[in-house]
Amino acid sequence: MLARARLHAHRDCRRCSVACVHIVIMGCGRVGSTLARSLEDRGHTTAVIDTNPDAFRRLGPGFSGITVTGMGFDRDVMIQAGIERADAFAAVSSGDNSNIISARVAREQFKIDNVVARIYDPGRAEVYERLGVPTVATVPWAADQVLRRVVPAGSEPAWRDQSGDVRLDLVYAPFNWIGHKISDLEEEADVRVAYLTRLGSGLIAHPDTVIQEGDYLSLFMREDHAEKAHAALDAGPETD
Fold first, then answer.
1. pTM of the full predicted structure?
2. How high is the pLDDT of residue 183?
3. Is the CATH number of domain 153-235 3.90.79.10?
């Protein structure tokens, strides 16, 4: 397939709080288009590859990067997308084989260190991880996110440190703590609130932040204290 490229004016990288980079994305579905727009919003430059030129409509009229029609693992197509100056490559099309082939071409032929491939088959994901290609296994990730929201709070942490001593739990604000300060919750439950999500926006929690209904709290706690911490969260503040 003949590749066709479309180049727009680059965005102003001065809006970037860290070093601005160029990222090549293969696949302009919902994931690829969202990723491209998010990167541009952060001031980075992007190029998107897809076999279907109509897919680029998902990027919207404000997209200022490169679009290339062609196969994502074709060397000429990748070069048109700026792979030779790219800092990272993300393969997020709907095909496992295409994603992994293009990721390996980016890494092995163009020497791109930062590559990632979206893989639907978790069995394949493990194999490619061992080959040195980082993968995002879509189905296990989605299942894990759903699991964390349906099991009782505290049943499964969102993260553990390498030692297994510290864990991160994500919980909705317990009813008994609504209207109370973060500092009170931290003291009684012996946890640390790293941040919270309120009405879809992330907020840094301060000691005098008042907990509201619907807040989604990110709590750090010790693994050996988790049961007591969640009991304190359920019980609410002690009354004199």
1. 0.62
2. 97
3. no
